[in-house]
Specification:
It is a single chain. 72% of the residues lie in helices and 1% in strands. The chain is built from 18 helices and two strands. It has a two-stranded antiparallel sheet. Strand 1 and strand 2 form a beta hairpin. Helix 6 packs antiparallel against helix 8. It is globular and about 75 Å long. The N terminus is likely disordered.
Amino acid sequence: MGKEKTVSGAFLRIGVVQEAIGVKSRKWWAGFIIVVGGSLILISSMIGFAVNSYSGVGVQVVVITITMGLAVLLGSTSKHTAPFERFQNSRFMRALPILFFGLSALALTPVILDPLTGFDLYAVLLGGGAVIGIILTLLYEGYPLLKHRGTPGIITMAGFLIVFAIVYMTIISTWIVPYDPSDIDVGPLLKPPQPGFPLGTTSLGQDLLSRTIAGGGIMLQVAALSVLVCFSIGVPVSLAASFRGGKVEKVTGIVMDSIFAFPGLVLAIAIAAMLGPGVTNMALAIAVVYIPSYYRVVRSQVLTIKELPYVEAAVIMGARDRDIIFRYILPNLLPSAVVVMSINFADAVLTAAGLTFIGLGLSVDVPDWGWDLTFGSHQFVTGAWWVITFPGVMIVILALGFTLAGEGLNELLTPKLEE
């Protein structure tokens, strides 16, 4: 078997084994312990939460999502190996999804029979399984690339793993939390971490562990929606204005500079106050603030690419503006736009937390890290440090994950930075 038939993963090598495990370097063993240990801690934590969950099916949800993730990993890796090509096209592989979902339905029949929870449960299983599959694929297929990518690759993978781990926890949170995050008086009022309440309780007697696990949902929705709006508006408008030039570019530049002149959080507060509470309104308020960041990056890229020889040659040969934009300019500026988008996620998370902190978020009965920071700030002066600490740490970790992913992508997609 030649080298082209060899498939490498994080710690597995299919093909000719060139090194014995006993001679692996200390760095390899350190990576093995960190990745395997971290994965076991994550899985055991999810199962531990699920055992005591109030939903009654937390264990099944965790096991099925992990199984679906393993199936995604198997499908991603086996397509690269010659021995599995025939197996993939076999009847068994075609029938495997039907068999899997059949077994899943059988294991969860009591809940699926309830029309109020069945659809939500299947959405959680599909979403959680897909995210676990992404995590496992990153660990398996991404790890060998780090020796070629170096530090930027490590930073990028670390950021993506942090983000996807929090996304997975948020997706299945409803089914694994020990108490309903919105219920009050489930425990003693404002008590520090203790047996039965590992992270303590709030002033309303709510379980802080349950609110911490489920509190990222609103923040992730606001961040994703705002960045999607920023990207879908900022890139086309900036590209069209910069390519056209003239008065269109001047007017667009004046508008973007005017928006950029205001402090981001202050402008977002003003817009959110006018629009009112709600996920969509918060996302729109944040999107308006960060559209100018796309304009500056895209404009500089367009002005540079327009002067390149191959673009000038296309113009001389009579290529249409549409072809020049979509064939030559857009593919070259997309990497920079993706980097801006990943960094905007971190900014959107922090801005969303700020809006909720000053009371422009959703209602108080919705579990949200921003609300916990708001109410925790009132009890912090009395010594109740746990109410504000754990939600704040989760916000910092989520923003850190997006920041690491954005900075790593910036170095990976811009090789000149390494020079």
